[in-house]
Specification:
Length: 115
């Protein structure tokens, strides 16, 4: 069912991406020299869809990195809580094992004590 839903969502997106690439395949000049527009030092001809896809990819990477960095405090607190829970769990097990070692093997029955 999940595979069907993924296909239902991703298939139209893939079709749109292919249509975008086909419609924007004209070459454009990508220049990395902001001072010389007539004869740029660093320039290349690339299809427009490559510039669009590269811009989207860079945006996704920057956004993911910013999100990952913003969640650093939460991840640190979660690690601390997990360590504390593990320590408490091991201490509980240790106390249970000590408690069972101190309990006598046979408990007196209520009838034998006179109640």
């Amino acid at each position: 069912m999940i595979r069907f839903l993924k296909a239902l969502i991703l298939l139209p997106i893939a079709v749109l991406v292919v249509l975008l690439a086909v419609a924007n395949r004209a070459p454009v000049t990508l220049s990395l020299d902001p001072f010389s527009q007539d004869a740029p030092e660093f320039a290349t001809q690339v299809p427009l869809f490559a510039v669009i896809f590269a811009a989207v990819a860079v945006g996704v990477i920057i956004g993911g990195t910013a999100s990952w960095l913003a969640q650093g405090k939460t991840r640190k607190a979660r690690r601390r809580y997990r360590r504390e829970a593990d320590q408490l769990r091991s201490e509980t097990e240790r106390l249970r094992s000590q408690n069972t070692a101190n309990v006598p093997a046979t408990l007196p029955s209520p009838q034998s004590s006179g109640f």
